[in-house]
Design goal:
Length: about 575
């Protein structure tokens, strides 16, 4: 879908952040090419013996394919370490009050959405925004102190620490800070959320049309009409951990749409997008204007999906766009033949014939969607090595996915794959694919997780090898880190370490401001492996006078910006 100049606000922002094809992009690239001839020819690259080519950090105008920073070394420091010339600022740490009624920022930040404060009027503010912060889970040691049997009070406290924070922020006198706004709010495990799509009112949810809460909020996505898609990932364990609370597992594991600009609009679970361990939702537009979301099921030997809306995006009709994800088709990727297979009970006989013993596996589309993983495997979806984040390249429209690792198969380092849809159309039913980058000692990274493209189409990736225990990664990787990858030119697919997170943390949810001058990234679970609360393994972002580490956002500045 080509963007037109008269198209809306957010679509223009989307063009800047996600689908950089604008005149601005061309001008910036041209200027860079004229003043800084740093893009190397193949011959120059060959002469360099394939070694990384690094721009002079003083020459900060970002060209394609060359980092503008001096890559840093691995470290195990309890800090966010960034290259010379860059600086970091703590923003919105766990526990900070931010609403009129005294609610506080939740625990374990993950996806971060950046919604320019003026976007509904067509603006793209890079100094003021509503940020949405996913809060994936709590560490009960830090929240209530009991890691095994929780008290009812601790369960209630944990249920208020998950979900999403909508936070107005502003950059003033060189500092980002939270500012008051009636739209500042928390969505937590108690918030009323409407079920939409085929599972609404179905037997698999005992007829429910409205449910309580959104939990397991991992990564997510932003829509062209300015809503958040928050993805419910690890939702099973709460049935036991929160026993007696009324927690209902089948009400979780969906994609929930939230309008940060309109607190009166009840959040919606989009059941047509399936129920599984939803990592993310990467939103783009098909050639005909239908909305496409790419999604991963983050579990060993699970699949990659895409949802195609029935209706088309109308840049002039935000109200109608907010209903687009209620109806559409869900597909699963078959990497064997490069095809998308429809998960529709009425149209796919394999779903009708699928058996569990001698009983039918499914009897309705609602049942297919509620156990999309089983449906995907029944129709030939390809199990892959834990799909984490997925993003669409802003210019090529290739789709990149992080397959983080799979210890079942000895894949400890992970890969980033990419695929090209037929005719470059996101609604196509065929694609070709390949490996973009391999983790391992040769590349310096392991376990790729969240991805984000910059306006030039360079890929930024954060790692999460927290769960892998002792293995060769510890010897070369240091703490979880953030890497930069050119996606074209002589350094295509090479990893350059930009930042390293604190001890026992992962960096999550990277997002650039529209001007490219601020990178927001979350620091999730610092000090995760702490056993003695009096002796935490990290004290990152602890309140003055205390040692308890706090999950938080970090605003990283020092970037030249897209327009430099
Ligand atoms: Fe919550 Fe798959 O990371
Ligand atoms: Ca993740
Ligand atoms: Ca992760």
């Amino acid at each position: 879908m080509t963007s037109q100049p008269e198209q809306s606000l957010w679509h223009r922002l989307l063009e800047t952040r996600l689908t950089r094809r604008s005149a601005l992009g061309s001008a910036a690239v041209t200027a860079a090419a004229v003043t800084l001839p740093v893009t190397l020819s193949d011959a120059q690259a060959a002469a360099n013996n394939g070694a990384p080519v690094v721009a002079d950090p003083k020459e900060r105008i970002s060209p394609h394919s060359v980092p503008t920073f001096r890559p840093i070394e691995p470290t195990t420091a309890d800090a966010v370490t960034v290259p010379a010339g860059y600086r970091t600022q703590i923003l919105a740490p766990w526990g900070e009050p931010f609403t009129d009624d005294g609610r506080t920022i939740g625990f374990n930040h993950d996806f971060v959405g950046y919604f320019p404060i003026d976007m509904l009027e067509g603006g793209q503010s890079s100094t003021e925004a509503l940020l949405t912060i996913n809060h994936e889970y709590v560490n009960p040691l830090f929240v209530g102190g009991n890691t095994q049997e929780r008290t009812p009070e601790q369960i209630q406290a944990e249920m208020r620490e998950v979900g999403v924070s909508v936070v107005r922020v502003k950059r003033e006198r060189g500092e980002w800070k939270i500012v008051a706004d009636p739209r500042n709010r928390r969505i937590d495990a108690f918030t009323d959320i409407e079920l939409t799509g085929p599972v609404r009112g179905a037997a698999v949810v005992k007829g429910a049309t409205t449910v309580k809460g959104s939990v397991g909020n991992c990564s997510g996505g932003q829509t062209p009409w300015g809503t958040l898609l928050t993805c419910e990932e690890n939702v099973d364990g709460y049935q036991k951990a929160w026993a007696g609370s009324g927690y209902e597992m089948m009400h979780q594991g969906w994609v929930t749409e939230i309008d940060p600009f309109d607190p009166e609009w009840m959040p919606k679970k989009r059941t047509g997008m399936g129920r599984f361990r939803h990592e993310n939702a990467a939103v783009t537009l098909a050639a005909d204007g239908r909305v496409v979301a790419y999604m991963g099921d983050d579990m060993q030997d699970s699949c990659i999906y895409k949802f195609i809306s029935r209706g088309k995006y109308d840049p002039q009709n935000r109200a109608a766009n907010r209903d687009l994800l209620a109806e559409g088709d869900l597909y699963v990727a078959n990497f064997g033949n490069g095809s998308w297979v429809l998960l529709d009970y009425d149209k796919n006989k394999k779903l009708q014939d699928a058996k569990n013993g001698d009983k039918p596996l499914f009897t309705s589309q609602a049942e297919v969607l509620a156990d999309a993983r089983a449906a995907a495997l029944a129709v030939g979806g390809t199990p892959v090595d834990r799909p984490e984040d997925i993003e669409v390249h802003p210019r090529s429209k290739d789709v990149y996915a992080a397959l983080t690792n799979n210890s079942k198969h000895g894949n400890f380092f992970g890969q980033i794959i990419k695929w090209t849809e037929k005719d470059g159309d996101a609604a196509a039913l065929n694609f070709v694919w390949g490996i973009f980058a391999y983790g391992g000692p040769q590349s310096g990274f392991a376990s790729p997780d969240n991805l984000v493209f910059d306006a030039y189409g360079n890929l930024w990736m954060v790692t999460d090898n927290s769960d892998l225990g002792t293995n060769p990664i510890k010897a070369y990787h240091g703490n979880n880190a953030m890497f930069f990858f050119p996606t074209e030119g002589p350094n295509m697919g090479k990893a350059y370490r930009f930042a390293v997170g604190p001890v026992d943390a992962e960096m999550t949810g990277p997002v650039f401001s529209p001007d490219g001058k601020t990178l927001f990234v979350a620091i999730q679970h610092p000090g995760e492996d702490t056993e003695d609360i009096n002796n935490p393994t990290s004290t990152f972002a602890a309140k003055p006078g205390t040692k308890i580490p706090r999950p938080t956002l970090v605003a990283i500045e020092g970037f030249p910006g897209w327009k430099a």
